[in-house]
Amino acid sequence: MTAKIVDRVMTAVFYLIAALLVVLLVGLLGYILARGLPKLSWTFLTSPPQSLSAGSGIGPQLFNSIYMLFLTMLFTVPIGVGGGIYLAEYARPGRLTDTIRAAIEVLSSLPSIVVGLFGLIVFVYYTGWGYTLMGGALALMLFNLPLMVRTSEEAIRAVPHEQREASLALGVSRWRTITDVVLPSALPGIVTGAILTAGRAFGEAAALIFTAGMSTPRLDFHDWNPLSPTSPFNPFRPGETLAVNIWKVNSEGLIPDAKEVSAGASAVLVIAVLLFNLMARFLARVFYRRMTAAKL
Amino acid sequence: MTDSLTSAPPRPVWVVDRWSETRALEEAEDRAVSQPAAEGAVAIETRSLNVYYGDVHAIKDVSLKFYRHEITALIGPSGCGKSTYLRSLNRMNDTIPTARTTGQILLDGVDVGRPDVDVWALRKRVGMVWQRPNPFNKSIYENVAFAPRFHGVRKKKDLDEIVERSLRAAALWDEVKDRLHESALGLSGGQQQRLVIARALAVEPEILLLDEPASSLDPVSTAKIEELLFELKKRYTIIIVTHNMQQAARISDRTAFFLNGELIEYADTKTIFTRPSRKETEDYVSGRFG
Ligand SMILES: Nc1ncnc2c1ncn2[C@@H]1O[C@H](COP(=O)(O)OP(=O)(O)OP(=O)(O)O)[C@@H](O)[C@H]1O
Ligand SMILES: [Mg+2]
Predict the structure, then answer these.
(1) Residues A172 and A146 both lie in one domain
(2) What is the DSSP letter of A179?
(3) Which positions fall inside the ABC transmembrane type-1 domain (chain A) (predicted)?
(4) Fewer C-beta within 10 Å: chain A N or C terminus?
(5) What would the pLDDT profile of B236-277 be if each residue is shown by its tens digit?
(6) Residues framing ligand 1 (Cβ under 6 A)
């Protein structure tokens, strides 16, 4: 009898928690979108910011965010998946492995502001680059690698051992077994890790303020040469992302419409993260199907 | 279908030559080519084989010869080391960090247990099928084509041919020929097991190791697999672990009885089942224990 009551109470509690989470999410999204959406327009999305007068746009920042995301994923995914492969397939239990795991744990618990300061010393001063998108991307990588390594490792470990045995028993090498049998099966999990990582990269501000700077030089969007200083594709130019811009406009902005601009930018940020999420899942599904013939 | 099975095994022309690395193995290959296997030739043999898992002594000093174009059954109670012994023949125990093997494994008279032997080449010659079907998470076609492609077959036409030949040899072609590019995980358990056999045949092995290949299957699928093994023994040497005494008696030419990691008795299947020389064997095959 009591067991039954406890059962009912706990069920109710869990339902309540679930409902609370949904309410929180809907409320937050609703608030951000309701405030930001009316502000959105093609001009807002494409025009440059103003420093003193109203009518700022977020064009360069939107571009910077996407480009920075691209750069950081370019480093984070291969290195992260590589680390996951190492830990799941090659690392033998022992001191070395324990040390690596501990290092990953510590890295993942570093506050992003500390990563930013480290980036300032290494990527800005030590390298002599100054504030650059590249420095920002590397700082984001440091801060996201642990998550990427851990999710890849888990996804790779979850592939049944029999799959590896089957491949090895056919005389297939260990490396080809990993790339052609294990990784395709682990792909959905790895993609989930990449999406989580990307979301954090997109929303990160503290680590970027000190590494990628808070302003963008005048960009010529017709200049596609990544070596030219006015090219948007030059990774060694400074540039603030949307998240940094929101912080800047609110904290030290002199423009009269700071509230509207940051509301609009926030909405764009949220929508961009959602879009990225959907796109990554879609691509992953296409790849997964191609590699495994499975219907997901 | 019988065509491809009754003809003499063609030398796989597409085999990537890794043998040059090991002189001894190269010589063995030459011998194998120049002298077609006589009736009763030994295909693979172990001498004083011991396998340890850490401190557990799982296989104790087992010496056994397996003959070409025969089916040999390994029987014995659970935990007696049948799987361990089978897995040592294609050195799959190498993939278990705690496992250690001593003694000799002679394939065509050449010790392939030595650490310097190319295990990939060995495993290509000694295929394996497990108790639980373990097809790759890939299409039916890719399951079969994957290993040949790794071993050097590039042309689509050649791969198509290998896939068809292997699936026919595993008596699966007619059931899957219209769905080659669908996921293998959508097949029934019995079909998956035949696919795993086709996958093993695709690299043209000489020996097939089967670890209770039918124990997770229904009687109809089991009968199909047994029929298939009968066909396959014309071209391959088959070593099968089974818990099913009727199955061992039905399909095998010779039977080896294991107990606690030791080989107790090895003889013609008929002898083992009708007048075994050891008391333990008699008790086991008559169902008095195990
Ligand atoms: N990976 C392993 N690590 C440690 N010990 C193992 C391992 N695999 C098997 N063993 C041990 O080795 C012995 C033989 O096991 P094995 O699986 O070869 O038996 P088996 O005859 O195939 O049994 P079954 O009929 O149940 O499949 C057992 O005592 C088992 O516990
Ligand atoms: Mg077993």
Answers:
(1) yes
(2) I
(3) 62-280
(4) N
(5) 999 999 999 999 999 999 999 999 999 999 999 999 999 999
(6) B 53, 56, 58, 76, 78-84, 96, 98
